[in-house]
Amino acid sequence: xxxxxxxxxxxxxxxxxxxxxxxxxxxxxxxxxxxxxxxxxxxxxxxxxxxxxxxxxxxxxxxxxxxxxxxxxxxxxxxxxxxxxxxxxxxxxxxxxxxxxxxxxxxxxxxxxxxxxxxxxxxxxxxxxxxxxxxxxxxxxxxxxxxxxxxxxxxxxxxxxxxxxxxxxxxxxxxxxxxxxxxxxxxxxxxxxxxxxxxxxxxxxxxxxxxxxxxxxxxxxxxxxxxxxxxxxxxxxxxxxxxxxxxxxxxxxxxxxxxxxxxxxxxxxxxxxxxxxxxxxxxxxxxxxxxxxxxxxxxxxxxxxxxxxxxxxxxxxxxxxxxxxxxxxxxxxxxxxxxxxxxxxxxxxxxxxxxxxxxxxxxxxxxxxxxxxxxxxxxxxxxxxx
Length: 386
Hints:
This protein has twelve helices and 16 strands. It is α/β, with parallel strands linked by helices. It has two domains: about 210 residues, Response regulator (Rossmann fold); about 130 residues, Response regulator (Rossmann fold).
């Protein structure tokens, strides 16, 4: 009798949990909330929370004529590749999420993308620009442009703006993003300016704090400028040491500079420098300005490109869920329907720009180059489109 009672009770709880699951849309977020780049994770989470609150305050996401509350599960990948894989597996197997947003950095997105593809779970990276994150992985998408586009943007801008005929490169050898972009830049620069025009090609490790040996070689080579495709936390250390060693020339970076924390860490050493990125907050118009103003009012800081890209990436997932037409209680069928719907989105008007998706799940979209002003703002300089 007692056994029958507990079996009946368990059955009630099971039915209740199934009913609850059917009433929610569960999305996982694979974020660097600690480790080397915690501000990236914080920016992503803030944008996602703002979007979730917007939709849930209106009764949820409408799918097939019914509204479903959004449930976002945030997991910390510690800014590590192996942790990002473990987080992906947790979200897929334990939490039974419909789709995953993140990781952001290519160092984590490339391995985690393989895990999501193997487990047939849709994943979209807001910020990863390394081609390998999505290459031949039909379940993996992104909201950012690719490094084979970003590298030549830096080459052409430096050639035009600095009159550069020679360059030096400093990059993180253990970061897929930094290493890949450095190699793309070098190949494109030497194709356009001649063999040997990249006078120094120096690398460092992720945990390095002293860059004086590499910078001494670079400064001795007397390049017209330095290309620095590093994460924002490393940029702050490198630029200070470069200036201490006597470097007075221009330094150009890439989208991994675009954190709200860059100027807090870098200060005067970053002012006057340029980097390529996904959007410029200063002078934004339309829906982008609305997002920026709301984010600033809520969090008391200007949203960086990670926040804006997370807003777009999450909206792409939600649009795919709506386009799938229903919420299926079979999680495998639901994931497959979302993947098909994401692949079928012809174009998307995001706050980081208009984008169309190719067969690899990569958006064809414009980049912008910004200058860091004396006030520490990222000011629009020019837009470069494919």
